[in-house]
Every structure is written in structure tokens, then in C-alpha cells.
């Protein structure tokens, strides 16, 4: 695990110390940020089920204005904070040690340009997460995007009121589903 490009380019990140955290591969991260491209600079980035923070840290390294990391695992939080300090990106980060569902049930202070959702696979957590974001459109900026990372076999249609799935990209054992305001 490393930061691919930007201000922290090449910095090795501490891999997960717990079995419950599944990091994104460098190949998957490269593909994701190639798709997101110009959405990242000066963006407000929300990393839900953040784990060790590899995706949000990559966003900060590529010029995101800020990144909020929501993770409730103590071991993952320790690794996330270590990675932020190592990359010297901690000044632009907010780390919240809490449950994602609890976090999403309160109104946001400001909308996010990119919301990244990468829960543990095969636990049916991505669907209620996207539904909570859909139920409170203030979470997502006007031209924002919600990205779900999961196993390709987990992706299916959801009934949503404010969000619409625009694309699904598959890279081996990972899929990214992209939702924008309808």
C-alpha cells in the first residue's frame, strides 16, 4: 500500500493490522482516481468505513481541500492516524471514530463533493449506507458523486429517490458503482 501520486507520492502506508479491514489495491485505486480525475482538486472528500484511510489519503495527496474519515474500529483508527501523520496530510483531515450509520443520521455541516463507501464485503452494508445518503440529499454537493466499492457480485439496483446509479466499473474482484443526483 502506497500513495500513488500527489504531494505524498510514493509514501508507504501502514497496511491493516486487523482482519476486518480490506484495503483497496494500488491497481483499483489508480483506476478509481483516473475516473474521478478533476473532481478531486479542491474537493471535500468523505471516506466512510475508512479503514486505514488509503483512499481519502490519496484524495488529499491529489489536492482535495479536506477529507473526513469515518471508522469505528480501534485498530483501523490507530493505523489511519499513523498513515495521516506519515504522509503529513493530517492538517486537512478530520478523523471520526464512530459508526457510519450513526454519523449519517445527523445533518451534515456542509455537503461533500465525493463520498466514498467501502464497507466490509458480504455484510449488506453498502445498501443502507447509500439509502441514508439518498434520504438526506444535503450530504452530497450539487455536482457530487457517491462511489461504492464492493465485490462485483454484490452490486444490484436500489430504489432511490434522489440518487441514480450512473455507472459500474469492474476491476477483477472489485467493482465501483457511481451515483449522482437524479
Automatic annotation (TrEMBL):
Molecular function per GO: methyltransferase activity
GO biological process, one term: rRNA methylation
Alphabetical list of Pfam families matching this protein: Cons_hypoth95
Residues annotated as signal peptide: none
Keyword presence, Transmembrane helix: no
Annotated segments matching region Disordered: 1-24
Protein name per UniProt: 16S rRNA (Guanine(966)-N(2))-methyltransferase RsmD
Keywords: Methyltransferase, Transferase
SUPFAM superfamilies assigned: S-adenosyl-L-methionine-dependent methyltransferases
Record's keyword annotation contains Methyltransferase: yes
Amino acid at each position: 500500500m502506497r500513495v500513488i501520486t500527489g504531494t505524498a507520492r510514493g509514501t508507504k502506508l501502514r497496511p491493516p493490522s486487523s482482519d476486518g479491514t480490506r484495503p483497496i489495491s494500488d491497481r483499483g485505486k489508480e483506476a478509481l482516481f483516473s475516473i474521478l480525475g478533476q473532481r478531486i482538486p479542491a474537493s471535500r472528500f468523505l471516506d466512510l468505513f475508512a479503514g486505514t484511510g488509503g483512499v481519502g489519503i490519496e484524495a488529499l495527496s491529489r489536492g482535495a481541500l479536506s477529507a473526513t474519515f469515518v471508522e469505528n474500529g480501534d485498530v483501523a483508527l490507530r493505523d489511519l492516524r499513523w498513515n495521516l501523520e506519515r504522509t503529513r496530510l493530517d492538517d486537512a483531515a478530520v478523523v471520526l471514530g464512530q459508526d457510519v450509520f450513526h454519523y449519517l443520521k445527523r445533518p451534515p455541516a456542509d455537503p461533500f463533493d465525493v463520498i466514498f463507501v467501502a464497507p466490509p464485503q458480504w455484510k449488506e452494508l453498502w445498501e443502507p449506507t447509500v439509502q441514508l445518503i439518498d434520504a438526506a440529499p444535503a450530504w452530497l454537493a450539487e455536482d457530487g458523486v457517491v462511489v461504492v466499492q464492493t465485490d462485483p457480485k454484490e452490486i444490484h439496483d436500489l430504489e432511490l429517490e434522489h440518487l441514480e446509479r450512473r455507472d459500474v466499473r469492474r476491476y477483477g474482484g472489485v467493482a465501483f458503482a457511481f451515483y449522482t443526483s437524479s
